[in-house]
Amino acid sequence: MTLAQYEQFSNYAVASATGILALAFVAYVLQWSLARGVAPDRELVLPDGEPAASGTADPVQRSNVAGSIGFSLTQLAAVVLLAGVVARGLSAERVPWGNMYEFGCAAALSAIIGYIVLVRIWDIDWVGPIITGFATVVLGASALVFVPAGPLVPALHSYWLVIHVLGAMISGAAFLVGAAASVLYLIKAKAERTTPEGERTGFLWRIPTAAKIDQLAYRVHAFAFPIWTFAALIAGPIWAQYAWGRYWGWDPKEVWAFITWVVYAGYLHARATAGWKGKAAAILALIGFVTFVFNFVGVNLFVGGLHSYAK
Questions:
Q1: Measured between alpha carbons, how far is residue 245 from residues 152, 239, 240 in Å?
Q2: What is the model's pLDDT at position 151?
Q3: Which residues of the chain have pLDDT under 70?
Q4: pLDDT at 42
Q5: Is 173 within 8 Å of 107 (Cβ atoms)?
Q6: Does the keyword Membrane apply (predicted)?
Q7: Where are the domains of the chain?
Q8: Which residues are within 8 A (CB) of 257 and not within 5 positions of it... i.e. 6 or more apart?
């Protein structure tokens, strides 16, 4: 294949992955909606009250099927998007995250793969709607800043590009899972406080308790924070010294990377020393994620600075 053919294949693959992810999002939403009105401990039963035979579909079974379809589509999207990202790299003859479009595609891929891995480890498929919805938006928005494949600007010619950006993508994927868990924690915690026992029906009551969701959010953030520290405050400055002759210059992206680090450091410190749990911790985690997203979108589009080449 020629370089142009690789680029064309990449464009088709990214567009296809976006559509598949959108379908996965719809399937996850159906999983939640089909379980509406169903008690969390309800068994599969027929309308007349008799136990259901194998293969009989009731709301619980239909909900489970929708969830399985959503996860299968998510895995398919990951494979297709991986092919698209690799083809983009082959067409450009470099690592495929040298501009905002490429970073969006690679970051979405990291988030999806991270989610799939954590589903296997911790069975967190219940955050599927948020992960697939967010990844779909990222891919769609990335298409708006599409640029043809081409060589890197001189400042990016360094192996620190691979180290710095890869670390940012891995930590960003974990931050997304942590943010999704924090959102669901706030919803579940409020429901646990305000919903009488007899009215606790629907998919919300088939996911872990608020306390367990809160613990998951903490674990994911604790994993992501050291990686973000290395990527943003160690690898980034080393790369800046290589590219611009100084380790730190308070460029807007450097400032927002530091702000993100401070917020997440405050989150983890408060949890470890002050015993912060619950609503305050979840809100602080979400603030951290907002600063992370702004760093990679808002700074590039609206602020600029030395990192404006990332457009």
A1: 19, 9, 7
A2: 86
A3: 41-57, 155, 304-311
A4: 59
A5: yes
A6: yes
A7: 152-311
A8: 232, 233, 236, 295
